[in-house]
Amino acid sequence: AKGLGKNQYCVYTDEMGVQEIRKMELEKDLQRALEHNEFFIVYQPKWNVKTNQLFGFEALLRWQHPRLGVVSPSEFIPIAEETGLIIPMTRWTLEQACHQCRVWNARGIDQPVSVNLSVRLFQPDILLEWIQNVLEEAGLDPHYLELEITESMVFYDVNDIIHQLENIRKLGVRVSMDDFGTGYSSIGLLDRMPIDALKLDRLFTNDLDTPGKRAIIHAIILMAERLHLDVIAEGVENEEHIEFLTQLGCYVMQGYFYGKPMNGEEMITWIEGHNE
Ligand code: C2E
Ligand code: CA
Ligand code: CA
Ligand code: CA
Would you say residue 8 has pLDDT above 90? Predict the structure, then answer.
């Protein structure tokens, strides 16, 4: 048993080595990725099953690394947050997403786009001004922009974040709470949060087969209704998910069942397919 333990230890350190090296490489390359135009955005539709209509798009960042291929945001966003690069990267993402939304508008697609915000964006008090500038440059009505924030912000200066969000929302921009129910829950703050919607994390959608789990989701949905918040389920992959969720009162779905993340042009084709 001792020998096996030793072997496992060796394998483990080897893997750590590879991961560490990759992380260092990504960290170094991320510095230049923005100037080298290596980022692109894909969009994923949200679908309202009650009205059978689109419910907007979420912008998801991708990094086309010159050697490693497409790197997932779950890998590079934490690095971007550590290094502070997340700030210029998010500015770029906001500009691109607002521009894309205008392009869709011109093609008769009247839907909002949402952009994910790391809590780091609230630290210098720049967001309100940025958003005003980005919307103005894109010529986009604020109602077409939505921001997705996460629960982890409760670790920061909550009052300051609430204040910033209130001002942004006064412009007409929507705010939603992403990954709801996974982090250190902010249920106690929910009535104070200036938000319009809750997004149920994918973990819930994929784990609705016990009565206990369904009871929790049902309670969240009822609470959201009382607080006049929309509820969007993430990670909807099959008919069974849709059936469970609609039974519990959740009607807006996002997931591979409806559409995978795709580029702006592909989205137009996707929409045309769904209008027929
Ligand atoms: P998220 O905001 O929770 O985004 C949803 C993630 O679930 C996306 O992963 C999406 O591709 C994936 N997904 C959607 N439908 C399904 C499904 O049916 N099944 C499964 N298994 N997965 C599904 P992605 O694009 O890899 O993004 C991962 C995370 O990276 C995002 O999670 C978000 O937290 C973060 N992220 C992405 N773009 C940005 C960005 O521009 N800024 C910031 N701060 N974070 C971003
Ligand atoms: Ca999100
Ligand atoms: Ca999410
Ligand atoms: Ca998530």
Answer: no
